[in-house]
Amino acid sequence: MSHDTLISMTRNLIAHGAADTMEYADEVLAIPASTYTDPELFELEKRKIFRRLPLMVAPSCELPQPGDYKAMDICGVPLLLTRQRDGTVGAFLNMCSHRGNPVVTAGTTGNATRFTCGYHGWTFKNDGDLVGVASPRDFGAVDKAALCLKRFPVYESAGLIWATLDPESKLSIADYLCGYDDLLKAFEFNGWTLFAKRTLAGPNWKTAYDGYLDFYHLPVLHKDTFGADFYNRANYFSFGPHQRLSTPSKFAIKVSGEDDQQMDLEKLADDEIPQEVLVQGVWTIFPHISIASFYGGGQRGALVSQLFPGETVGDSYTTQYYVMENQPETPEQVQAAHDQFNFLEIVVRDEDYATGKRQHEALQSGMMDRVLFGKNEGGGQVFHQWAAKLTHASDSELLDIFAAEQREAAE
Ligand code: FES
Ligand SMILES: [Fe+2]
């Protein structure tokens, strides 16, 4: 089923490319400029989107082995992810049940089967169980079973890990993904490795995210990096709030060692279309992920960008994970992978986010009421419509929205 969907998206892109056309949204959309600058809306988004919806918190290859862990802070919520002994991932509130100290320092990764809190020494297993109260006789009797680390809903699929930062969430993560994770399996991330990661500061999270949903800017803003002859058209395919965008084209480049060959895709049967063509373009996962293929030294790789709101409405931060099918081996391959990853840092930091910062400052002047998304920018339109809808939905409406998506997909 998902393979058929990948083929039909690819055929759509080939047909539009051959005809020199693209798909358009119905009309030019205006949204209030305050969408980007209103601090109250920003606080609401952190609560209703980032602290209520499933988030892609790590690629599986960041925690490949039992005992691997990572601690991170998301919109003020301390999260601990662990690869447990049975191979499943646990997602926990990273707060000691004694008095709330984070059990693992945010921003760190490592391998451990137990965590000892740095304040008074309570010890937890990596499945969240409290196994040791320091000086238990002095402390007094407590029900250890009731004092394990609080669990968050977690879901692993397609070589990616999602968690919902609300222990009481009734929204199934699989439902929320609307089948999109089945399509993401085409990247074959299972068994890939993490080559490198870094975190960059950016502008307002939606200003930053707009750039990932937008090919319109490529030959202009990125003329010195990607080049001025880059296509600026994209067709958008949406699966609930998640969207893939890709250039309508009947050609693709086959990356094969030294020589890149151009393929005429119209001439290929469905089963001759290479996997790398089926996953071309940018795959966004609402509300904060973008995935795109890049080759470092001829090796298959992908940049997974993970965006979070920062402290203020004008700040965000993005962790870039450069994942690769195989760890590069020769010094030349390692250098080529570093060069590729460094290039992507420059593009995002010095071009996208530097522009986003300037744009945000200008919008904060309050001198402009609205901003526009063209008929060729359907992805931005859909993103902002979903962001507004999900920010303002009650908890029960949220469940209804994704139940309706399930029904629609089944039809
Ligand atoms: S807060 Fe963790 S042991 Fe006291
Ligand atoms: Fe860009």
Mean model confidence by pLDDT: 96
Q: Rough shape? A: globular
Residue runs with pLDDT of under 50 for 5 or more positions: none
Span from first to last CA?
13 Å
**CATH superfamily label of the largest domain:** Naphthalene 1,2-dioxygenase Alpha Subunit, Chain A, domain 1
Which fold name fills CATH's third level, the topology of the largest domain? Naphthalene 1,2-dioxygenase Alpha Subunit, Chain A, domain 1
Helical content class: 25-40%
Question: How would you characterize this protein structure?
Answer:
The chain has 411 residues and is α+β, with helices and mostly antiparallel strands. The chain has 13 helices and 21 strands. The chain has two domains: 261 residues, Naphthalene 1,2-dioxygenase Alpha Subunit, Chain A, domain 1; 102 residues, Rieske Iron-sulfur Protein, CATH 2.102.10. Strands 12-20-19-18-17-14-13 form a seven-stranded antiparallel sheet. α3 crosses α12. It is globular, with a radius of gyration of 22 Å. The model has no long low-confidence stretch (mean pLDDT 96). Bound molecules: FE2/S2 (inorganic) cluster and fe (ii) ion (FE2). The site of FE2/S2 (inorganic) cluster (FES) has 9 residues, from loops.
